[in-house]
UniProtKB/TrEMBL annotation, chains A, B:
It holds the Pfam family HxlR. It comes from the Bacteria. Residues 8-107 form the HTH hxlR-type domain. This is MarR family transcriptional regulator. It comes from Streptomyces corchorusii (Streptomyces chibaensis).
Amino acid sequence: MRSYGQYCSIARALDVVGDRWTLLIVRELLLRGPCRFTDLRNGLPGIAPNLLSTRLKELEAAGLITREDAPPPVATVLYELSETGRAVEPVLKALGLWGMRFMAEERPDDTFQARWLAYASEWFTVDADPDAPPAVIQLVAAGEAAVVELRGGQVHTRLGRAADPDIVLDGPPRAVLGLLGGLVDLDRAVELGLSVTGRVDLLRRLRPVAPN
Amino acid sequence: MRSYGQYCSIARALDVVGDRWTLLIVRELLLRGPCRFTDLRNGLPGIAPNLLSTRLKELEAAGLITREDAPPPVATVLYELSETGRAVEPVLKALGLWGMRFMAEERPDDTFQARWLAYASEWFTVDADPDAPPAVIQLVAAGEAAVVELRGGQVHTRLGRAADPDIVLDGPPRAVLGLLGGLVDLDRAVELGLSVTGRVDLLRRLRPVAPN
């Protein structure tokens, strides 16, 4: 890690998390919780293993992650965010909210993961009708699935499939995420390949966080 | 700009602002408004001119800045943030708030500028007593000066000196910023070299933004 050598809290933050891949590694650790090197590598398509290894050492030295030996017979190392590392979440949210504007275009060689679908709904949408009864939205994009639960004004998400969802949104990532992020309306999402089954009225309840 | 090739809004944001120096260039443009290449270079100690030039071209291509010829006889180019560029501000705030934890230590070769003093007070403190009468705090650190005005619950700052401040805080950057950021208390700030003249009670009114 090279330092900018500026007595400025933004520069200091970038001294620690400004190198290439670092913030995406923190993203993966936030979404996954304690995990193995292999899990991280799978969640970061395109990263060279030796670079991941270097970054993990830097993050440990800066106090953002801890590494712990998993109990036998697993015999593997688990990486986990420290409190300082978890405190990076608002930075990722601010970046992601700003980056939504670039999500209308999906590039042919973009990789995509269900985990990102899940954080997008939890971080970038709100429940516009907190007094309404709980509801379950099933998201499926590029064959990957996440469940969005609306309950008491909160938006919670998890990976996988719900037993009895109120609505299912299934389609290419940019149709599903474009709709969630307010980049496209329902008609346009359907044009992009979205299939909607169930209570369409729930889409009004899941509202994109206002752009800043 | 190399792309991470991930259909994730955080990765997309980092495709645009994740390269070395880019976010600090946006910081300078936010703090200065329209400015010349020379101004930017002065505000970014350590940057190589050819790298600054490359980054400005990338930022223009990505739609974050515009460049305009200043009217004659000035004959210079002015760089200015676009709406998309200004929308990066919450990212810088989140980074700076997180980075405050690394500000207790001031390194011997750190550079420092009055502009950073000004944004630190405006971004990272709140007026805890909105109903109190307006008050003016003069900050001086490393010989550079900024004025903090508390008025109607708002914290406004500007560079320079006030005619009749209610309190003057003067000392090394880590004493002034440490106190503003809640990293050190008044006693410790005085130990670090802070000199305080005037209404010390106003320090209770200027409250650090809660860490996230």
